[in-house]
């Protein structure tokens, strides 16, 4: 399908079809292939899961707004830089977008039509966003080579936060984790792998509920970059609905900026990350995205000032990072690597770019994470 013929609306994958089964039915196999094809084509998809409740997301967003509305000195108590910020809070102006200085990434931006490029990040560093990492993982029954990625959680101590924190984090985090792990099963089947291939590889992954906060009082001017153009280092990223627009993604085969609109109902956004790119040999590419203040963000700010005058003006991204296990040997699957090479050759023959050719060297997942954390200034 030619790039101009591709829809600018992300495919909607119905997880309910998969969960209803039976596993080998025509309907299930078709939906799984649709999921895999969506990630190959777009690097992203919309996931429908009836189990995910809007009320749980709203409760989570309220708690996060209250947490990040605390004074900076209170938030700083929850920082753990010695653990590469992989638990607890990361304060604003700490994390750098990798693409601000990464040559292959800058070439991807240059290859886009000027009208489709992200906001200029070359002079933007670091991001004016805060983040909190809450682990949602099973402790490995073996001695991991990467203990910093498997440390115990931090619980904020302010009483009005602390009493709500564990229950709210676990409830919303479990909903997101279940949805994305079940999608991993669908993608396995859709790629011709055993249904539990990716689930087993991620059984002891350091999964993270990872709300990201942007203060729209301080950073609410149009064209402010809240999170610069980048891709994620994990396997799959899943998002609940944010209260404020501003997330743009770039589909691999369109070269077009797509403002994300999650349809109403029990729907979530899912994006491919670097670990999925590596294990598929580039058949699925990690999806690029940015978060910016645009006209729609400004309109929403004004609307919420009127409707909720007592609520903090903080943009929360309701995000969960699903990882493969840190000690897992990350090696491209040979059948998928061959398909990736064929896809790249077809794109080049058709006169379309696909970024620099990448060699996906065998390594532990934890090593890939370390490499990426150094790029974004979270690890020395």
UniProtKB/TrEMBL annotation:
Alphabetical list of InterPro entries matching this protein: IPNS-like_FE2OG_OXY, IPNS-like_sf
Family recorded in the similarity comment: Belongs to the iron/ascorbate-dependent oxidoreductase family.
Lineage: superkingdom: Eukaryota
Coiled coil spans: none
Keywords in alphabetical order: Iron, Metal-binding, Oxidoreductase
Record-annotated Isopenicillin N synthase-like Fe(2+) 2OG dioxygenase domain positions: 225-323
Gene3D superfamilies noted in UniProt: B-lactam Antibiotic, Isopenicillin N Synthase, Chain
One annotated GO molecular function: oxidoreductase activity
The name this protein goes by in its record: Isopenicillin N synthase-like Fe(2+) 2OG dioxygenase domain-containing protein
Pfam families: 2OG-FeII_Oxy (PF03171)
């Amino acid at each position: 399908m030619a790039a101009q013929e591709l829809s600018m609306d992300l495919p909607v994958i119905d997880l309910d079809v998969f969960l209803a089964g039976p596993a080998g039915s025509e309907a299930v196999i078709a939906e799984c292939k649709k999921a895999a094809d969506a990630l190959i084509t777009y690097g992203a998809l919309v996931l429908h899961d009836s189990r995910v409740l809007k009320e749980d997301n709203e409760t989570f967003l309220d708690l996060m707004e209250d947490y990040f509305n605390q004074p900076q000195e209170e938030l700083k108590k929850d920082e753990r830089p010695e653990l590469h910020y992989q638990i607890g809070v990361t304060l604003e102006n700490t994390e750098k977008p990798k693409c601000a200085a990464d040559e292959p990434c800058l070439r991807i931006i240059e290859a886009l039509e000027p009208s489709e490029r992200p906001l200029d990040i070359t002079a933007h560093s670091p991001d004016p966003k805060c983040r909190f990492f809450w682990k949602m993982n099973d402790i490995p029954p073996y001695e991991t080579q990467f203990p910093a990625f498997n440390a115990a959680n931090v619980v904020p101590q302010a009483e009005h936060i602390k009493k709500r924190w564990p229950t709210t984090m676990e409830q919303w985090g479990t909903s997101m984790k279940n949805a994305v792990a079940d999608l991993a099963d669908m993608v396995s089947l859709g790629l011709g792998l055993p249904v539990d291939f990716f689930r087993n590889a991620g059984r002891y992954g350091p999964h993270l509920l990872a709300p990201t906060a942007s203060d729209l009082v301080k950073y609410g001017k149009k064209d402010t970059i809240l999170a610069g153009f980048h891709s994620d280092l994990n396997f799959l990223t899943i998002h609940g609905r944010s209260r404020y627009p501003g997330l743009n993604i770039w589909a691999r085969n369109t070269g077009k900026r797509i403002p994300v609109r999650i349809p109403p109902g029990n729907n979530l956004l899912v994006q491919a990350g670097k670990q999925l790119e590596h294990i598929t040999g580039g058949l699925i590419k990690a999806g690029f995205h940015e978060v910016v203040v645009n006209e729609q963000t400004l309109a929403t700010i004004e609307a919420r000032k009127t409707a909720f005058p007592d609520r903090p003006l903080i943009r929360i991204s309701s995000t969960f990072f699903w990882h493969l296990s840190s000690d897992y040997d990350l090696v491209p699957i040979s059948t998928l690597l061959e398909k990736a090479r064929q896809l790249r050759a077809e794109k080049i023959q058709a006169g379309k770019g696909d970024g620099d050719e990448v060699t996906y060297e065998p390594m532990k997942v934890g090593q890939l994470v370390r490499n990426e954390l150094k790029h974004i200034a979270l690890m020395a």
